[in-house]
Write a structure and sequence with these properties.
mainly alpha; 2 domains; 3-stranded antiparallel β-sheet; 3 strands; elongated
Length: 169
């Protein structure tokens, strides 16, 4: 790239800054030491990683989607955390209570997402939710294994599908 960072578009600069902050905070949390030398060494390490990543051209809109960050952090992730807890409780009840049915079911449905990032977010959200796992993921169709028929019935046109679609916009 000619001119280095001078000609770098604003969004790419924000992406680099966001990646720096995320990596540096992660480094500080893992380090646990806050002496000036170690903080400077951490910053230097992060700059080196970002320089190499920039040279390899791996920091892009899919690898570090800052356009989703604030909206996802404020709306989607808290909702997903609640859904994970509710599903974990349901799976626990089904495993421990003999009267509740465990009926493994495969279900196919068409996701509403159009971008590869939206499809990945949706498939990973399904897999993160206890009792379900995305087996096959394609733009035209998802194949999901669910622990119960009720869980499988709630996948097509679900709130998760709508929320993942909203993240794309």
């Amino acid at each position: 790239m000619q001119g280095g960072l001078r000609l770098y578009p604003l969004m790419n600069r924000l992406r680099l800054l966001s990646a720096f902050v995320a990596l540096y905070v992660f480094w500080l949390l893992l380090s646990g030491f806050f002496t000036p030398f170690l903080m400077a060494a951490g910053a230097g390490s992060v700059v080196a990683v970002l320089w190499l990543s920039h040279r390899m051209d791996v920091i892009d809109h899919e690898g570090h989607p800052i356009h989703l960050s604030l909206r996802a952090f404020l709306s989607y992730w808290p909702w997903l955390a609640v859904e994970i807890v509710k599903s974990a409780w349901d799976v626990t009840r089904r495993v421990l209570h003999p009267a509740l049915p465990i009926s493994p079911t495969l279900v196919r449905f068409r996701p509403r997402q159009t971008s590869p990032l939206g499809l990945v977010i949706h498939a990973n959200s399904i897999t993160l939710t206890p009792g379900t796992i995305a087996i096959e993921v394609a733009a035209e169709e998802f194949l999901v294994h669910a622990l119960s028929r009720e869980g499988a019935a709630g996948l097509a046109g679900s709130e998760m599908d709508h929320r993942c679609e909203a993240l794309e916009k």
